[in-house]
Design goal:
The complex is a heterodimer of chains A (85) and B (87). Chain A has 3 helices and no strands. In chain B, helix 1 packs antiparallel against helix 2 and helix 2 packs antiparallel against helix 3.
């Protein structure tokens, strides 16, 4: 059950990243670019979660998971502060 | 270090949620309301995760919050595309 939730998190976050990137390619709204970059990072974050807990059990990747989650959010908030008038 | 990074990410999620709430107030576009709700759920996920870190029993519930956050973003995008279909 837990494995299914981790995998679904990875799949949905990747879908979000792809759809937002597609939206940016069509509309060129800067907010969509920052959101896409954030979700690309969150997809990496969730893939690391799957790698850490399913593929290589143990908590070795926790630092990288937290780092990717933090960097994704930092990128989005930077974009929101920079681009919102 | 892990707790610090996770706490920072939670705080940034709350801030991002506030930005989207402001966009929603300004434009009344529910796309932004979905985003605000999603980022607050991500913050909630991180807070609950930190609280439950020594207890693996509720791990599914903790990550289900994260999953709902991503599903909300997908709902927001699909809702937006349905409202304004491509020409």
């Amino acid at each position: 059950m837990a494995d299914a939730v981790f995998l679904l998190c990875a799949v949905t976050s990747l879908a979000c990243a792809v759809l937002l990137l597609r939206g940016y390619a069509q509309n060129r709204v800067p907010l969509l670019l920052w959101s896409s970059l954030c979700f690309v990072g969150l997809a990496v974050n969730n893939m690391l979660l799957v790698a850490d807990l399913i593929v290589f059990p143990g908590r070795d990747l926790l630092l990288f998971r937290n780092l990717s989650g933090f960097l994704s959010m930092a990128l989005l908030v930077f974009g929101l502060v920079w681009d919102s008038e | 270090m892990n707790e610090f990074l996770s706490g920072m990410a939670a705080a940034l999620c709350l801030v991002a949620g506030l930005f989207f709430l402001r966009f929603w107030k300004k434009t009344r576009d529910r796309f932004f309301a979905f985003f605000a709700a999603s980022f607050w759920l991500m913050a909630l996920h991180r807070m609950v995760n930190l609280y439950m870190r020594d207890n693996n029993e509720n791990l599914v519930g903790v990550y289900a919050i994260r999953l709902v956050a991503f599903v909300l973003i997908l709902v927001a995008i699909i809702d937006k595309n349905r409202a304004a279909p491509r020409k």
